[in-house]
Known about the structure:
Layout: H1 2-12, H2 23-45, H3 53-71, H4 74-81, H5 85-89, H6 95-128, H7 139-166, H8 170-198, H9 202-213, H10 215-240, H11 243-248
Helix pairs in contact: 1-6, 2-3, 2-6, 3-6, 3-7, 4-7, 6-7, 7-8, 7-10
Amino acid sequence: MIADIFTVVWKERKGLLRQRGSRSRAVLTMLIPIIMISIFFPWSMGPDWVKDPVGVILVSVIIPMLLVGITIPESFAGERERHTLETLLASRLSDRAILFGKVATSVGYAWIMTLLVLVLSLVTVNIAHWDGHVMFFTPAVAIADVFFSLIMALLIASLGVLISLRSATVQGAQQALMAGTMVPIMVLGMVLLVVVQIQPEFIDRIKEIIEAIGSTELVLIIASVLIVITLVLLRAAMARFKRARLILD
């Protein structure tokens, strides 16, 4: 099956950033946030960029969400729009090879681009704040960036491919994926804002809880939750991927 997955990846790489045939529009869509994260924030934060958790959140969450959010809706909804889905499903490739190949293409692209953004941010912070020695990420930040960017890419891709399997159009898949990822974050942010306004000591309590748990244990808990959610979504996509059902849809 590995060879079949690579076959799908080889096919899918040509369609990256297609977005209805406009690669330039896709590039422009993601150019501004990438510039912000790889140049503006490192420039502004200075040496704190290589050790501050804020940098981890910006890189390992926003970049994978952005890049996977652009590419994964195309996976099956795009095939359906171009009327090539039936041809793909009629091939000798197994269901899992097709599914995993499309997920791997989007995840691999997002993860590689995220690593490139990390390198560019290091170049930026060293040029802007040169003090006679080269600055690198602390081991904890580097590991968190690499690991969480991969797991976030997998999580968004798993959700996105599940949505794409059900969507008639790429635009519909993109909108549903955006709602599925951004709306919960916005709601959580609004709830936290209201709670902080009502109880200003809430942030101090959260800090106390984090200190009591320990940073390492907290990271492991978050990683475990993300992995479980990813596996559930991927399993749901595998269950949804039925050739007969897709052809009828």
